[in-house]
Specification:
- Strands 1, 2, 3, 4, 5, 6, 7, 8, 9, 10, 11, 12, 13 and 14 form a 14-stranded mixed β-sheet that branches. Strands 15-16 form a two-stranded antiparallel ribbon.
- It contains 9 helices and 16 strands.
- It is globular and about 60 Å long.
- The longest helix has 15 residues, at about 140-155.
- The protein has 2 domains: about 5-85, no CATH class; about 95-255, Gcn5-related N-acetyltransferase (GNAT) (Aminopeptidase).
- With about 300 residues, the protein is of the alpha+beta class.
- The protein has helices at about 5-10, 105-110, 115-125, 140-155, 160-170, 215-230, 245-250, 285-295, 295-310, and strands spanning about 15-20, 25-35, 35-40, 50, 65, 70, 80-85, 90-100, 130-135, 175-180, 185-195, 195-205, 235-240, 255-265, 270-275, 275-280.
- The protein is about 30% helix and about 35% strand.
Length: about 300
């Protein structure tokens, strides 16, 4: 099934394919216009670049990748690429992606986990946590947990409609996984699958239920489902290097790969546009503090406007 990319990016602009000249022949990359910048795969970790010729390709501009650096035939075009390689003099490398190579069965993967992780998963099961698996019909349950958790962490979230569009665009390869206790959603994840690769891009659990080891239960259900759907690799998504989230993922025996956020321009202060106003984003520590103490009706309105800048 083809992914309905325009459905995801309808608010930003129509995604388009562009030519990339490489030493190994022509490749194609999907970019979306975000403000004045062409961005690869916004809201996801990796740029989508491959050999298959798309049905429609933009004639201009074109790009060049010589194996070391990425450039555009039009020097006035600004771009931002998220890749597993550094291709520009201007980049961030503080993010890492943590992933697992998967065996053929959940039982084999469970045996690979440390005794401590297995113990916590089993305790979660004993607490009578249940799993619910579906599509966009479960986004409301996911969003209730996710938006609450993001507010607690001091970070904005995209709109509820955005996550629904993502799941709908991926069709049967877009899955919402909910952890429930006594009928209440206490954890949620959105998993996207392309070929034999599965990644959880958004994940959250309610802090009040941490003693139930909800996060261990939910991650295991995501991994198990990936194996059952014939994935060869499972990604825990990206995190900031040496953060609490990064250290948590190491318990699962993951491999870590650096993510490079490459820019065609010197790094600049982010701005958020609200109507005709361009407002300079404050320091992120300050923004997080302000977000935590802001009332819910404010963050629901403002969150989707600044979330793409924050991430």
């Amino acid at each position: 099934m083809k992914i309905k990319w325009p459905l995801i990016y309808e608010k930003a602009g129509k995604p388009a394919w562009y030519k990339v000249h490489t030493p190994r022949g022509m490749k194609f990359i999907m970019l979306v216009k975000m403000g004045d910048v062409l961005v690869s795969m916004p809201y996801f970790s990796y740029a989508l670049m491959h050999d298959d010729v798309p049905e429609q390709v933009e004639t201009t501009p074109e790009f060049i990748y010589d194996g070391r650096t990425f450039s555009c035939t039009d020097p006035d075009v600004q771009w931002h690429l998220r890749l597993l390689a550094r291709v520009s003099d201007y980049y961030h490398d503080v993010k890492v992606v943590s992933w697992l190579p998967l065996p053929d069965s959940p039982e084999e993967q469970f045996a690979r986990l440390s005794s401590n992780v297995r113990r916590k998963i089993n305790k979660a099961v004993k607490h009578n946590i249940k799993v619910e698996i579906g599509g966009s019909e479960l986004v409301n349950k996911f969003y209730g947990v996710f938006s609450h958790n993001m507010h607690r962490l001091g970070a904005p979230a995209m709109s509820r409609k955005f996550y629904k569009r993502v799941v709908d665009a991926f069709g049967h390869n877009g899955t919402v996984i909910i952890a429930r206790h006594d009928g209440k959603a206490i954890g949620g994840a959105i998993m996207l699958k392309r070929g034999h690769f599965a990644e959880v891009c958004w994940f959250a659990t309610l802090e009040d239920y941490n003693p139930f080891y909800t996060s261990y239960f939910l991650w295991w259900e995501c991994i198990k489902l990936s194996i059952q759907r014939k994935s060869h690799a499972f990604s825990f998504g990206r995190s900031t290097r040496n953060s609490g989230s990064h250290y948590y993922k190491q318990q699962w025996g993951v491999k870590n790969t650096t993510l490079y956020w490459n820019f065609s321009y010197p790094l600049r202060n982010d701005q958020v546009k609200i109507g005709r106003l361009n407002i300079l984003m404050p320091n992120r520590n300050i923004l997080s503090f302000l977000w935590k103490i802001s009332p819910c009706f404010v963050i629901r309105w403002l969150g989707p406007m600044v979330a793409d800048k924050f991430y």
